[in-house]
TrEMBL record:
This is GST N-terminal domain-containing protein. It comes from the Eukaryota. Residues 8-99 form the GST N-terminal domain. InterPro entries: Glutathione_S-Trfase_N, Thioredoxin-like_sf. Gene3D superfamilies: Glutaredoxin. It comes from Apiospora kogelbergensis.
Length: 284
């Protein structure tokens, strides 16, 4: 795990192909494009959560007890921010107020909360094993079972992480949970489509933000784009209205998203090579 910067205002812990990390990084890139914005000083800290770095003692104990990415420290925060919605809302409220315009703030907060109430695993992995469909295990179980030299603080943190996992992702692949996630996503996307129609952004030749280009990109847009792209790439395009798919495909070609993913899809594939070799993904 990269060491935090002593020079940056914030340190954003992120993994390139984590859906929720993409949401936070998109906020970081969109914010400075909005009216009156003064860019925050943010250093990106690469963390390979696929290799268990989010479960390392220092990160789990001192940064994010959820053992997930993203997380953000610094900036005078009383405690680290431990998910993409809190990172986004903090940056919008403190640095990029145009991303949370008063006339749309209640709708933005509501839709973001509902998006993040879903279990991402339920709609981003269509092929769990039969065992995972019953119970999705956590690698924490093996760490606790096979490690005898854990510090008391680390053991307590691991036990807390396992509790969090069991209350959230352990049953994310059960058919009833997946079906509810699909239904909720369809409802959310339908509501967003209605907002796009109301604002005049719907089905424009050039892609417009949800509440129209006069309003500009909001905190909702920073999470919506990676969400739509991931649904499509994960084989769940049928959940996303065609107009939103076209919008996302057009926005993905733009300069802001290029700074987030550098032309890569949202899903990592072995043919792309090791994530740790993608140096351009390790800084903002």
């Amino acid at each position: 795990m990269a060491e935090p910067s002593n020079n940056a205002e914030y340190n954003l812990y992120s993994s390139p192909f984590s859906l929720y990390s993409m949401m936070a990084r998109h906020t970081v890139q969109l914010g400075p494009t909005t009216a009156g914005a003064k860019p925050a000083s943010i250093a990106l800290r690469f963390l390979n959560h696929k290799k268990g770095e989010a479960l390392a003692e220092d990160y789990l104990v001192h940064v994010n007890p959820k053992g997930q990415v993203p997380a953000m420290t610094g900036g005078g925060l009383a405690r680290p921010l431990t998910d993409s919605i809190s990172v986004t809302l903090h940056l919008a409220e403190k640095h990029y107020p145009a991303m949370l315009p008063a006339e749309h703030a209640a709708v933005i907060r509501d839709l973001l909360a509902r998006i993040h109430a879903l279990y991402g695993l339920s709609f981003t992995n269509k092929n769990p094993t039969a065992e995972m469909a019953k119970y999705n295990p956590s690698p924490v179980e093996d760490i606790l079972k096979n490690s005898s030299d854990l510090s008391p603080e680390y053991r307590k943190a691991l036990e807390g992480k396992l509790k969090f996992h069991n209350e959230n992702n352990a049953f994310a692949f059960q058919p009833s949970v997946v079906a509810q996630a699909y239904a909720d996503l369809r409802t959310i996307f339908a509501e967003i489509t209605e907002h796009r129609k109301k604002s005049g952004a719907y089905d424009q030749e050039a892609p417009e933000w949800t509440f129209g280009n006069q309003v500009g990109p909001t905190a909702l847009d920073s999470h919506l784009l990676p969400l739509v792209l991931r649904c499509v790439e994960a084989g769940n395009a049928e959940l996303v209205p065609p107009e939103l798919q076209r919008w996302a495909a057009a926005q993905a070609k733009g300069p802001v998203w290029q700074k987030v993913m550098h032309g890569r899809p949202t899903l990592w594939d072995p043919s792309m090579g090791p994530v740790e070799d993608m140096q351009e993904m390790m800084s903002l």
